[in-house]
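2024-03-11 09:14:02 INFO worker-7 job=invfold-0412 stage=load source=structure_tokens
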């Protein structure tokens, strides 16, 4: 199978609470596949385990149980095997400020992964590839950007640089963890359209993590809804949003306004809070597992 398979993934964090150690089950038995030319959206309230799944796929965290298979095979987690894995699997983070180094130029940010992953050698070849990457993310003319530093760019331009950097090793799988939530509402659509175009043109497998049901529906083929570490609903994007089956998704979809032009990209945190409040009293088994309290910032 070409693509990435997540099989029965679980992650338990051990937290210190005074003298005791408490287990926090952040991810419980999550399975899905990422196929070429498709986008899977992972939606869910704050603290439901979305980023933990992403970080495990990107090998920034190790799973407690379960497997991740790339093209049907498991892979090494160190040294050369890890570098080869990262040729194929790259992550885009939420905050383009934090993910770019303020001291380095845009060219440096893109040249490093090109060299590290053996995609370009020598000054001229590297420069040509850097220009090509900037063009792929619509930062043109590229000459205007190469010598700038991250703080000399807008938030949207910075996130495009972060996307270009993720593309540098030539990945087939992109993990985008809330890639537009830190950006001004007016430029989110442009960045999401860019990701959609790259997915289409380059046949990428994309995991799109978001709180936003409207963009999840618009930009994804399949939606998985997470609640307290578990996938409580999954299916084709339209079905999940228009004909939700799980109680939590029903409440979420019912609480969501019609995605009109103005409402489409507004914050959805209140919807989650509303769905959560109503659902707390319901009998869904996932809701009875009270051992994973939502984060205080949720
Ligand atoms: N390194 C860690 N150590 C201990 N607990 C962690 C760690 N990382 C995440 N958690 C906990 O695991 C749970 C899931 O967190 P995660 O960041 O995956 O949620 P999320 O769905 O991405 O939330 P958000 O929408 O706010 O980004 C939370 O309760 C969080 O506090
Ligand atoms: Mg997160």
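2024-03-11 09:14:09 INFO worker-7 stage=emit residues=298
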């Amino acid at each position: 199978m070409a693509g990435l398979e997540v099989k029965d993934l679980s992650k338990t964090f051990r937290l210190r609470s005074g003298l005791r150690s408490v287990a926090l089950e952040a991810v419980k038995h999550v399975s899905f596949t990422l196929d070429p030319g498709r986008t899977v959206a992972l939606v869910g309230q704050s603290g439901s385990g979305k980023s933990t799944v992403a970080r495990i796929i990107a090998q920034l965290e190790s799973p407690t149980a379960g497997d991740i298979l790339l093209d049907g095979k498991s892979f090494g987690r160190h040294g050369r095997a890890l570098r080869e894995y990262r040729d194929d699997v790259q992550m885009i983070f939420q905050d383009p400020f934090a993910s770019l180094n303020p001291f380095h130029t845009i060219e440096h940010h893109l040249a490093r992964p090109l060299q590290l992953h053996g995609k370009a050698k020598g000054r001229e070849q590297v420069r040509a590839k850097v220009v090509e990457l900037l063009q792929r993310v619509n930062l043109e003319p590229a000459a205007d950007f190469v010598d700038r530093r991250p703080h000399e760019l807008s938030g949207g331009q910075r996130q495009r640089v972060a996307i270009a950097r993720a593309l540098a090793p030539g990945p087939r799988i992109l993990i985008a963890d809330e890639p537009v939530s830190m950006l001004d509402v007016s430029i989110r659509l442009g960045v999401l359209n860019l990701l959609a175009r790259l997915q289409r043109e380059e046949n990428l497998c994309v995991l799109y993590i978001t709180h936003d049901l409207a963009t999840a529906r618009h930009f994804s083929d399949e939606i998985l809804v997470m609640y307290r570490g578990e996938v409580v609903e999954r299916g084709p994007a339209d079905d999940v949003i228009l004909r939700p089956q799980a109680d939590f998704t029903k409440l979420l979809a019912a609480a969501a306004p019609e995605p009109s032009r103005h409402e489409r990209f507004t914050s959805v945190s209140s919807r989650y809070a509303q769905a959560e409040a109503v659902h707390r009293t319901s009998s869904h088994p996932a809701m009875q597992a009270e051992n994973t309290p939502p984060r205080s910032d949720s």
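2024-03-11 09:14:09 INFO worker-7 stage=report msg="The mean pLDDT is 87."
2024-03-11 09:14:10 INFO worker-7 job finished
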